[in-house]
Design a protein that fits this description.
Chain lengths: 484, 596
């Protein structure tokens, strides 16, 4: 086995020194700007913190977009649609818990929800049929599904123990209390947790992990989730997050498989197709959630939500660091994003599928000759890329201030993603991260200066326009000409 | 130029017209569609009382002659509603064709064509009002930005622009008076022309950007451009007016303002209708002129150069074609017509605002062109008509007050089109074209059966007066069959009105019913199920039926029938063929077998 050297070649510095110098001087200018404009040290820190959080979120979005272009050679403009879809899937799951199912005063949306809920038993029957069929045919499936069951039972047990500890003694009988707790809250949360275990294992199976790894993964996850719950971590929220992300990836995979089949060859047709997909997704959500137009949400039951996300996040407190105030959710999002980027790095560089993806990105036909399924890699890549965007959506939606909480927020995400990716160079992952930082910081700095804060949303676009005229391939893109 | 060359050039155009004759016939039919919907009580159908006023009222004499002709055959519908919608279709058609001119012919895909549209709308407004909003030019105290040198430059620029605009006003007015012999409201009309030219000049600047980037990059950059523009418009309220836009933009013809004393007193209340009619005719003329010009350019040598750039840029350059020049030319030409459409649209809406730069505008025309067929200017026209009529006549009535409905409808239609016919209607296979036409015919015939009141009776009422008298016997015979047939349908609520003498409209309905009943037994199953499911979904689950009137219900049904009818008409012949091959083609002799 040959050893892969990761050292930077001497040629690299020579070629890219202007880029590195430029970026370095840009960041220096940023710091000097911050120092010049603001006298207050707390405000300086505040600007830097906000810039960091915004840039990391932007970098996730740009990574998703750039990954799909780099490997599948498709410019998917549907990412705004998937962003909105993920946010509203999560919203839907949160709202389903509190739904008012009385038939007296049905809103428009209630009818749809009840219709969908009526379909759930059929889906469950089909699902169970498939599961049991597999249990009797393949033994590994039995063990995999056992992990999910383990999670559910563990979760409910922990819930029960917590209740015992809290209330001291139970008057109405142990079994009845257990059942009532299970029926009210525990069942839904634990079902979500169990479902995500199942989805993760299925994903690992689809990605052709080895059986031993899947065993280890499934049991570790199956035991970890009740333990997390015991430690008062927001397991329900996290599992909802993963559920929303995986459902969005699933939709992306399906659309890649069935909608883009005929137009795959032409860049422009793919762009038009995916853009219309975004139109479809966003306006169908608009139709369901905002039937009367405007920003007022026609809500489920007695819940009335305006333009901000409901306070479902477990920690809505804010931290105070040397005078700068930052929401805890933003800090959590920051670390989650770093975690996701590390996972992506490991996936691309250390796994077999990642190697296949890199091969496809270099030469599609040669990769197909070595036995790599091109359609499968394309589907996987679009699922991962859109999953990253869904992840950003799920993370940002609790505190999204600029893209207002509405189906229209997808457009702005799309525009920012395009701006960042064209600045960084299409298909280049490090380039998109760097340009995400450039644009995120530019936006935050401009918006922190009161005189020109109105230009905050136009400045990044103007930067991108200038860069495109001077250096059309972007900061770190290849100079190869693209054919339309 | 040699006479032979001219003849060859026009032969090309004529070939194009002939090969797309079905398009052209369709567009003409749609333009004269109001004929079908004429109603006796309409104000505009009162003959000759209005017409005199058109000469004194400041309309265009030649066109009002045409109107005279149209009036006699009952061309225009009630309350000018359809006129408005068709005018809108025509505006969209110019816009879509201009996109196709740039992107379909030259291959420079622009995802932000709305920048020309919005820019021209603002320029049109500036020109029409004479000065930019908020800047009251005063040579002694020109404080606009706060920086003295810049302000002086800006002030003198504005002065120059105003002088230029005045000059153009005078010239255009003289030309228009010379041509049409009439003196109508001139600033908005001249503004339209100025706006179009300015957006063409603006497009030359954008063309220089486009020289740097190619293919998908160009699409991405052009996607960003209108967004930057809309941000700037929102921020710089001094120059562009308030954030929400500028209302009360005047149209090109305003009868009451031109000569209020010339109008007869009984016409004063109808001035708005006359305005709408004038606007319709004006847009129609501009549409024909601009599409003709675009086709002329596209089928000339210049058009050949455009196509060669689209196919292979390097090869075109090696043949000696000046690629830079032709690219910029394509941008300027496309922007000219886009600007024309934008100015017309702002005059149609009587409104200009930052929303004109929305990317939904850019994508609407792309969707129109894709549905019609990219690379053929007529394709964009057809797409514009299909989508605008779908939105204005159907979706808006079925989904009352739902936002972003156009985008939903366009998105679904585009996904379906790209999935099943990636090259649009123009290059669809013959079976698909046939299926589209037959499916729509199916839908129409199914919709008019159980109508009772509404559109169908209007047609029938207009027909019944013109049929010969000998049909009474036939009607008596058919009334029996009609009664027996309709007794099966519980839905028909006008049964009581059918007396001994059946109107000819009922005969028509009976005939169509018999036809469909005999030939469409399979169709009946499909259509009934589709109707039940579709109406259940739209009416009950989405809760739309609360705001429906009777006509809206029929429109919803028509939409469902179209959605089902086209795939049905596509797959039915294939199924028949399979059955025929199975039971007929193989059995008598092996020679009758027909492979696909």
């Amino acid at each position: 086995m040959t050893k892969i050297t990761n050292s930077i070649s001497t040629d690299f510095l020579h070629r890219e020194k202007w880029i590195i110098l430029g970026i370095g001087s840009l960041f220096l200018t940023y710091i000097i700007l911050i120092l010049l404009v603001h006298d207050d040290s707390a405000l300086r820190l505040q600007v830097i913190l906000n810039g960091l959080v915004l840039s990391t979120i932007y970098s996730v979005i740009a990574l998703g977009f750039s990954l799909i272009y780099g490997i599948a050679k498709q410019l998917k403009l549907s990412l705004g649609g998937y962003y909105v879809l993920a946010a509203y899937i999560m919203f839907f799951f949160i709202e389903v818990k509190k739904i008012n199912t009385s038939f007296d005063n049905l809103g428009n949306i209630d009818g749809l929800v009840i219709f969908l809920m009526g379909l759930i038993p059929f889906f469950l029957i089909i699902m169970f049929a498939i599961i049991f069929w597999n249990i009797f045919n393949k033994h590994e499936f039995f063990y995999f599904s056992f992990a999910g069951i383990l999670t559910i039972t563990g979760y409910i047990l922990v819930l029960f123990i917590k209740k015992l500890v809290n209330e001291g003694e139970i008057t109405e009988g142990l079994f009845r209390a257990f059942i009532s707790e299970l029926l009210t809250w525990g069942l839904k949360d634990s079902l979500y947790a169990g479902t995500i275990i199942f989805i993760l294992i299925l994903t690992a199976w689809y990605l052709e992990f080895s059986i031993q790894r899947i065993y280890i993964l499934s049991y570790i996850l199956g035991i970890l989730i009740p333990i997390f719950f015991f430690l008062n971590l927001p397991v329900g929220y996290l599992s909802l997050m993963i559920l929303a992300v995986s459902l969005t990836s699933f939709v992306a995979m399906l659309s890649d498989r069935y909608l883009l089949e005929k137009v795959r060859k032409s860049h422009i047709n793919v762009m038009i197709m995916t853009f219309s997909l975004a139109l479809f997704l966003q306006s169908i959500i608009n139709l369901i959630y905002f039937p009367s137009g405007g920003t007022e949400l026609v809500s489920f039951g007695d819940l009335k939500i305006g333009i901000s996300f409901p306070p479902i996040v477990p920690t809505t407190k804010s931290l105070r660091i040397y005078g700068a105030i930052i929401m805890e959710v933003k800090v959590i999002a920051f670390f989650f994003v770093i975690f996701a980027v590390i996972l992506l790095y490991l996936f691309i560089w250390k796994t077999k599928i990642g190697m296949a993806l890199r091969a496809v990105s270099q030469d599609e036909e040669a990769a197909a000759l070595t036995g790599i399924d091109i359609r499968k890699t394309t589907a996987i890549v679009s699922a991962i890329g859109m999953g990253l965007i869904a992840f950003a959506a799920v993370l940002t939606s609790p505190f999204s201030a600029k893209p207002q909480w509405s189906p229209g927020m997808g457009w702005w995400i799309l525009i920012m993603a395009i701006a960042i990716v064209t600045l960084g160079g299409l298909g280049s992952l490090p380039g998109s991260i760097i340009s995400a930082f450039i644009i995120g910081f530019a936006e935050v700095i401009v918006s922190s200066i009161p005189d020109i804060s109105a230009f905050a949303s136009a400045i990044p676009l103007i930067i991108v326009l200038i860069v495109m005229i001077i250096k059309p391939e972007g900061l770190m893109g290849e100079k190869k000409e693209l054919e339309a | 130029m040699d006479r032979k060359q001219i003849a060859e050039k026009f032969e090309d155009v004529w070939d194009e017209i002939r090969s797309r004759s079905y398009y052209i016939v369709g567009v003409l039919l749609l333009v004269f569609f109001p004929f079908l919907l004429v109603t006796p009580g309409s104000i505009l159908s009162e003959p000759f009382s209005i017409l005199n006023s058109f000469y004194s009222g400041g309309s265009i004499p030649i066109l009002s002659d045409l109107f005279n002709l149209g009036q006699e055959i009952g061309l225009f519908g009630k309350n000018a509603y359809l006129l408005n919608i068709i005018a809108l279709c025509l505006i969209w058609a110019i816009f879509a064709a201009s996109w196709d001119f740039l992107s379909g012919y030259t291959g420079q895909v622009s995802f932000g064509h709305a920048i020309f549209w919005g820019f021209s709308a603002y320029v049109t407004f500036w020109v029409a009002t004479g000065v930019p909003i908020g800047i009251t030019f005063d040579p002694l105290d020109p404080i606009v930005l706060g920086i003295p040198i810049l302000d002086e430059i800006l002030g003198s620029l504005i002065f120059l622009i105003n002088a230029f605009i005045d000059f153009i006003f005078i010239i255009t007015n003289e030309i228009l008076v010379f041509i049409f012999g009439s003196n109508f409201m001139r600033p908005p009309l001249a503004a339209l022309v100025v706006g179009a030219f300015t957006s063409a000049i603006f497009a030359v600047g954008i063309g220089f950007i486009a020289l740097r980037v190619k293919g998908p990059y160009l699409a991405l950059v052009t996607l960003l451009l209108p967004l930057i523009a809309s941000q700037i418009v929102v921020i710089m309220t001094d120059l562009f007016g308030p954030k929400y836009g500028i209302p009360f933009i005047s149209g090109p013809f305003v009868v009451e303002r031109i000569s209020p004393f010339d109008l007869p007193p009984d016409l004063m209340g109808r001035a708005s209708e006359i305005n709408e009619l004038n606007f319709f005719i004006f847009v129609l003329v501009i549409f024909f002129i601009s599409v003709f010009l675009m086709m002329l350019v596209a089928y000339s040598r210049i058009g050949l150069a455009f196509q060669s750039i689209r196919e292979d840029e390097d090869a075109a350059e090696s043949l000696g074609i000046n690629v830079r020049f032709y690219k910029i030319l394509a941008f300027a030409g496309s922007a000219f017509f886009a600007g024309l459409a934008g100015g017309l649209f702002s005059q149609y809406l009587r409104f200009t605002g930052p929303s004109f730069f929305a990317s939904s505008f850019s994508f609407s025309i792309i969707i129109m062109c894709v549905i019609g067929g990219i690379g053929s200017i007529s394709g964009g026209v057809v797409g514009a008509f299909v989508l605008t009529i779908l939105l204005e006549l159907f979706l808006k009535d079925i989904f009352h007050g739902v936002q972003s409905l156009d985008l939903l409808g366009y998105g679904i239609l585009l996904i379906v089109t790209l999935r099943y016919m990636p090259f649009g209607l123009a290059r669809a296979s013959k079976d698909q074209k046939k299926a589209c036409i037959v499916g729509v015919l199916f839908a129409i015939s199914w919709t008019i059966i159980p109508i009772g009141e509404g559109w169908g009776t209007n047609i029938i009422a207009s027909l019944s007066s013109s049929l010969p008298l000998g049909t009474d016997v036939l009607s008596n015979i058919l009334s029996v069959s009609f009664e027996t047939l309709t007794s099966y349908m519980g839905k028909v609520d006008y049964m009581g009105q059918i007396t001994s003498s059946l109107s000819d409209g009922d005969i028509l309905m009976t005939l169509s019913f018999v036809l469909i009943f005999t030939f469409g037994l399979i169709a009946s199953v499909v259509f009934f199920f589709a109707e039940i499911i579709g109406l259940f979904f739209m009416g009950d689950i989405l809760g739309l039926s609360r705001s429906w009137t009777y006509e809206d219900l029929i429109k919803a049904k028509f939409l469902i029938y179209v959605a089902v009818g086209i795939p049905f008409a596509f797959y039915l012949p294939k199924a028949f063929k399979k059955v025929r091959l199975r039971f007929w083609g193989v059995w008598p002799s092996a020679g009758r077998y027909e492979p696909d």
